[in-house]
Amino acid sequence: MSKRTIVALPGDGIGKAVLDETIRVLDAAGFEAEYVEGDIGWEFWKSEGNPLPDRTIELIKKHKVGLFGAITSKPKDAAFAELSPELQSKGLIYSSPIVGLRQHFGLDICMRPCHTYVGNPLNFIRRAQGDNFDEPEVDVVIFRQNTEGLYGGVEWSNPPTQVYDALMTHPRFVKNFGDTPKEEISVSTRIFTKKATERILRAAFEHAKKYGYKSVTVCEKPNVIRETSGMMFKMAQEIQKSDYPEIELWNTNIDAQMMWLTKNPENYGVIVAGNMFGDIVSDGFAGLIGGLGFACSAQFNPDTGIGVFEPTHGSAPKYADYDVSIVNPIAMIESACMMLDFINENDIAARIRKAVAEVIIEGKVKTYDMMKMTGRADVIEKGAASTQEMADAVIAKL
Ligand code: NAI
Ligand code: MG
Q: Cα 204–29–296 angle (5° rounding)?
């Protein structure tokens, strides 16, 4: 069989270190692949005015599967200031290449599993009766709609007249904002389509069915955001009733869900939400299982077979230039396992996950975050494992 080609997208900052170590783990686990490197990130914004060059889009289109480290994003003005001087007169506006990738390839299904690793010193614990404590076992998979909603990019400051006039046809707009000058108004839209909403809901129910979760929770705010959250919940009710009667449908509001996060996280199974609330709730659950060093994600389009797999953390620029990288590669390694599942290399994925679990249970090799240290270059002298040493430990278990 010919080797699979994977597009390696290191990006910025710590993205390269965690991706390099993950590829070593994949090799050691016997995953036969070639890696072609795709340009993405801040460097390409500064030098070319485009953090997601067309050649990178072409590579992903051709090979379909990408492993992505992390990118650096900065606000509009800061981005402009760093743009190479000869590009500054061209009216270029920075936008996040990862959001661009999601939209370009319609990677509308984002999956973020958060499960407790036995023995992880960062596991959430909860006060119980007397002096006792519980360590609830979290096993949640968040399905986040990845292309629409508040991150859909349809927004204006001082909106064009047609938009303003359309808004003025809404009685609530007239009542609450009708007296405000147009120049003083900023609008970010929250657009949900039935098609994308149905796709994320079905993906969530299908996952619950396949892996035996007893419930699917819609985590939105339908009592207040009636049109978009309301549509999602109503569609979930219809889908559950017609196709998944054996799975319970629960409904939580995003604010209450965050408040109750630590109360009964073990009760939740599959959670589904729009783009922004999915982002929020997945970070919340990730905090219970060890935080950014452990939080992995997949984003894909089931129709095209195109998928990009990435840790949810960013480029952590303050650690990027250390001589020895100190960050935890587990989030990236687990993201690679999601990639392996996506391309039906489930056995290799299972072996790597088992090796990671063994390293954590054994507790001998821990990166600085697992030792609850402040991230500094001297953590290695103080006994923390480097990024490379953590990968070595996983490889040794393989
Ligand atoms: P970040 O995730 O890069 O880092 C926040 C903090 O989390 C770090 O300072 C570090 O203490 C910890 N951390 C992150 N990854 C870790 C790991 N693997 N092991 C141990 N500790 C880890 O978020 P921040 O500082 O808000 O953003 C930095 C840059 O990353 C920004 O430019 C931001 O726009 C970008 N970003 C990119 C993302 C992506 O590529 N998908 C996602 C989030 C942020
Ligand atoms: Mg996030």
A: 35
Per-residue pLDDT of the chain in tens (398 residues, 90 and over written 9): 578 999 999 999 999 999 999 999 999 999 999 999 999 999 999 999 999 999 999 999 999 999 999 999 998 889 999 999 999 999 998 989 999 999 999 999 999 999 999 999 999 999 999 999 999 999 999 999 999 999 998 999 999 999 999 999 999 999 999 999 999 999 999 999 999 999 999 999 999 999 999 999 999 999 999 999 999 999 999 999 999 999 999 999 999 999 999 999 999 999 999 999 999 999 999 999 999 999 999 999 999 999 999 999 999 999 999 999 999 999 999 999 999 999 999 999 999 999 999 999 999 999 999 999 999 999 999 999 999 999 999 999 99
Please give the structure tokens belonging to residue 276. 């922004």
Q: Which mutation among 98, 313, 328, 366 tests ligand 1's pocket best, with the greatest number of atoms within 8 A of CB?
A: 313
Domains observed in the chain = 1-108+305-398 (3.40.718.10), 124-151+192-288 (3.40.718.10), 155-188 (no CATH)
Query: Structure pTM?
Result: 0.95
Q: How far is the CA of 70 from the centre of ligand 2 (A)?
A: 12
Helix extents (H) in 83-219 = 97-104, 161-167, 171-177, 194-211
Residue 328, ligand 1, Cβ within 6 A = yes
Q: Is 100 in the pocket of ligand 1 (CB under 6 A)?
A: no
Q: How many CB atoms lie under 10 A from the CB of residue 104?
A: 15
Q: Which atom of ligand 1 is nearest to the CA of 74?
A: 32
Task: For ligand 1, atom 30, name the residue with the nearest CA.
Answer: 314
